[in-house]
């Protein structure tokens, strides 16, 4: 994938609500990998939010954002704050980090 490819993008998102302790990170990791995206998901302990950094095909990133807004069954998503960026190619896969 070329960094100059206009179909590629990245985003940084903060998901707030009841999103910790409900398998939200595993849910995001599973969806992102199925979509062929790279990046990470992690808990933001001090705020109770979940942070997501993802890169890849912009259409698939939009699909992942839809999954973030839904969340797993036990979650209650209040807000998904998304900031779009350019594709960097710095991630080799999609992982849960600390």
Question: What is the structure about, briefly put?
Answer:
Strand 2 (38-44) and strand 3 (49-57) form a beta hairpin.
Number of domains: 1
For the terminal residues, how far apart are their CA atoms? 27 Å
Sheet bearing the most strands, described?
Answer: 5 strands, mixed
Global morphology: globular
Give the rounded overall mean pLDDT. 95
Number of strands: 5
Indicate the CATH topology: Alpha-Beta Plaits
Annotation field: number of helices: 2
CATH class assignment = Alpha Beta
User: Helices and strands: which structural class?
Assistant: alpha+beta
CA-based gyration radius: 13 Å
Q: Architecture, according to CATH?
A: 2-Layer Sandwich
Poorly predicted runs of 5 or more residues: none
Oligomer: single chain
* Strand adjacency order, main sheet: 4-1-3-2-5
The proportion of residues in beta strands is 35-45%
N to C succession of SSEs:
EHEEHEE
**Fraction of residues in H or I helices:** 10-25%
């Amino acid at each position: 994938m070329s960094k100059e490819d206009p179909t590629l993008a990245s985003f940084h998102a903060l998901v707030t609500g009841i999103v910790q302790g409900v398998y939200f990170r595993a849910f995001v990791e599973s969806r992102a990998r199925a979509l062929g995206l790279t990046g990470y998901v992690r808990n933001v302990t001090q705020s109770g939010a979940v942070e997501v950094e993802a890169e890849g095909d912009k259409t698939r990133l939009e699909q992942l954002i839809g999954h973030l807004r839904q969340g797993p069954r036990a979650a209650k998503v209040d807000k998904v704050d998304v900031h779009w960026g350019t594709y960097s190619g710095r991630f080799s896969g999609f992982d849960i980090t600390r």
